[in-house]
Design a protein that fits this description.
This protein is of the alpha/beta class. Helices cover 58% and strands 15% of the residues. The chain has 32 helices and 21 strands. The longest helix is centred in the N-terminal third of the chain and has 44 residues. The chain is rod-shaped.
Amino acid sequence: MAVYVLAGLGLEELAAVFDTAAAISPWEPSAGLHFVLLLGFGLRYTPELLLIPLLHMLVVSPLNIAPLYVLLCAIWIMLGYSLASALLLHKLHIDPYLRRFRDVFRFTIVTFITSLVVSGLYVTTLAAAGSLSWSQWTVQVIREWAGEATGIAMLAPPLLLLLRLASEAKWQDTQEGPTQQIGSARLRSQAVLDYSIDLTALIFAIWLGYGFPPGLSLEYSYFVFLPLIWIAVRHGFERAVLAVLIINIGVTLLVYIRSGNNTLALQFCLMTVSYTGLLVGAAVTERQRVEASLRESQQQYQNLYDSAPDSYASIAVNGIIRSINQIGADFLGYRKQELIGRPIWLTIYQPDWQLAQQWLDRVLRERLVTSENELRKIRKDGSVVWVRERSQLLFDQDGTPTELHVICRDITESKHAEEQLLHNAFHDALTGLPNRALFMNRLERAVEYSKRDEDYLFAVLFLDLDRFKVINDSLGHTLGDEFLIAIARRIEACIRPIDTAARLGGDEFTILLEGIDDISDTIQVAERIQAQLTLPFNLGGQEVFTTASIGIVLRTTSNNHPEDLLRDADIAMYRAKSLGKARYEIFNPEMRNRAIARLQMETELRRAIERQEFRIHYQPIVSLQTGRIVGFEALIRWQHPNRGLVYPTEFMSIAEEIGLGISLDQWVLREACHQLQQWQEQFLSSPADEESAASDSSRAIQSLTINVNLGTPQFGQAELLQHIDRVLQETHLDASSLQLEITENAIMQNDEAASVMLSQLGAMGIRLLVDDFGTGYSSLGRLHRFAIDMLKIDRSFVSNIGTSAVSLEITETIVTLAQKLDVDVTAEGVETAEQLARLRELNCGYGQGYFFSMPLEASAAEALIVTNPRW
């Protein structure tokens, strides 16, 4: 506060030097000091504004007026400047450090008006006190106003600027490093040179305007405007503030030295110069700030533009590239300068030129504000990439399209992934061949083409490997996959590029032969494939051989549906497989009829179980020594509601394929055991010592056995022993009454497991028979290892022993073998007395066939037991 008071009194005394009337000066710098105190340090210092006027007018330079008037003058100064400061800070919200043009503009307007009001009150008070003449009131008000306004303009801005620079310099000193301080020193050296030039220009202008007698004229005063405006335009507000201060001091001193008095022209010149310099400097600084901000924004935009993750470009409507960001140029492998001004066709992959031109024409024709397109671009190095372009069309004031702003995003990876997904969707993942979907698509295309061209011929081949399961199970799935891949390559080598080979799944392949001349072309391909597949495959150092069954279907006018063609080829393939495999079959309508009949039988078989349509017939087994019945074989029959009695040769293989074989075998076992146990209970009540037919039947029934066939699937079941034991317990049938018939193929297929199973069954007391002996592939060397109780000679040998010497010799050999192995023999298919006699000559133990009886229902078999016939 002491500094403020001393400075204010000093400035008052300095201004008094230039007084031309009582208390009237060319400028009043203390007025500027008042605003610095209130704006820079706060309105709380408002009362202190009374000190300088009171001390100056009462103590330093006393006025010859009453103290009351002195107090009123001080009050006008305090109220005027404090209200003006409050208005600036709280209503107009200026920055007290005058950083913006709006702050300077509002400061000059408010201080300009405030100084006029305060000057009017001040002069009025002095006139009322008798210090001034009322006739001079207007002139004195104007002169006082000019002095106050000039004092504010010359002193307040530089002091406020010094306060701002001081605070900023303090912060910068804490932030600057050594490198920044070196740079600041260089800038200060340049500033000293600039200040020297500006000061020289100002001194010359002041001397030129006021150093000669005409200098007191207002017209010559404008010489100082030139360097002031030059400095303000070159350097802005801060340098303009310093120039205003120098001009006020320099002009006043020079005029005072030369003339010793002041004029109104001088005061108005200084006031005009001061405010003009402040406003021009502030405007220039504001413009510089705006330009710097604009440059910064442009640089930030350019940085964002160049560092954006996508490519940005501006393209004229004629296809010329106007601008492109750095990312876009780098993406294409060019420098920005190499692309700007060049046509967009330079970067577009040539096969996509037409697509790009159509897209650009459509955007301009339909005036699409936004659009999107996908195309390929070519880099400088020749590599091709996929991009997705999103564009915005810009228009001029007349609505004419001017340019396109385009954002390009690299979608090469996603395109490759999309292509891979598309490939995966239509190709087999293991072999790379087309899958079912793609094959059916091409087959449908061939069908449609053949509808338009009657001479167009094509064929479908359906291929299934014959021994793939054995190879896959023995070598493992890894080598099994390698095997399928090798198969695919060999199939591809056997067909033309226009043909299609596909893998449907597993070991099933299909081939579409297009544009063939006749069936011979198809047969040649099938034979070529068969020949290729017979060559050995090397899998993991092991040679593997395979064959394939192939079904062939030709396009005819009757099969116009792709699904039907594939189905018919599949039917033909199964026909080839059923006829011995390793061959091909050409489809004919009869195959479809058989397939439909088979499918119908599968359906009816499932329903037959639900409807309990199966029956058991019993065929007697006769001892050839006694001629008496010793047992029965349980034979399943199907009582079809429409076809009547159906034999197992027609349905049992199908039942096994669809998973019903085990269920049927288990049902036959349970029913047969239950039936024999019922017969035993029924005839048990007859006295054993009575000499009657009933007693004979009773004795015979107690020794009867029941033969039940075990299918291959059931024989391989781990739960077979438990199931048989459970059936025997539930039916209360002794195990010795049960005989199980098993084919020699079923035994040989299971080998070691079969040996264990047969031993366990024998340990239960169950007799075991080899059915249809002589027709399978059993090894005589291994036969003795199995716990076999009886061999059943196949009917194909028995039926011909009377006419074929070979059949007789085979039958005799089997009987002799059985005797050597110490097992019994049963001859199946005995139909004549001559055959019976021959068998008895060969010492065959048992016989079975129509000569004795056809298979009978349970009631008829029971009646046969009662009669107890003898042959």
